Amino acid sequence: MNTASLFPMFLKLEGRNCLVTGAGSVGEQKIRSLLDCGANVRVVDPSASLAVREWANRGALVLLQRSFEPSDLDGAFLVVAATSSVEVNHAIYREAQARGILCNVVDDPPHCDFYYPAVVRRGQLQIAISTAGLSPALAQRIRKQLEDEFPPAYAGWLEDLDGKRELLFSDGGDPELRRRLLHRLATPEAFVEFERGINQFESGKEVL
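and the corresponding structure tokens:
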């Protein structure tokens, strides 16, 4: 087992060409996550799931209903191998390695250049948990704990913080004072005040 540390980062996939081979229930999840990021998705599978076929019919992705061919990797930024054949998945991995293309063979950590983390999403706030493929179950349990710690209201709070940050930068002023103010605005106590304001607003709407 490789003990080297993983480099955590968030990739911008909007407009990048991504290939997924295998479009069953597992592949469908990977495809959906790539579409959510704005990637240009091409899928290769002789028998794709209903959802994937519907996405293709709407023009959300390109679906090639046949077996994988090495030329499918032409121009790809990354590839996810999710076929039901270990041999095919490993062949895709070897071809991707030869071309310098990032590859993830689903549920096969030794044949992955990157892993899908468990993710808590609150608008633009994303918290990713990875166990380097050692225990996805543990990553999922931690994700559930963090979902309780960071409620959905964090999405709106982050937008509010962004607006305040822009105002502070537009006003100029002392950089050190601005830094202290930004950190004070991002405290748990500040979130409680923000959430209280939402609740008061909702209560007011109910009265009206």
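(Above: one complete record from the training split.) The first strand starts at residue 17 and ends at 21.
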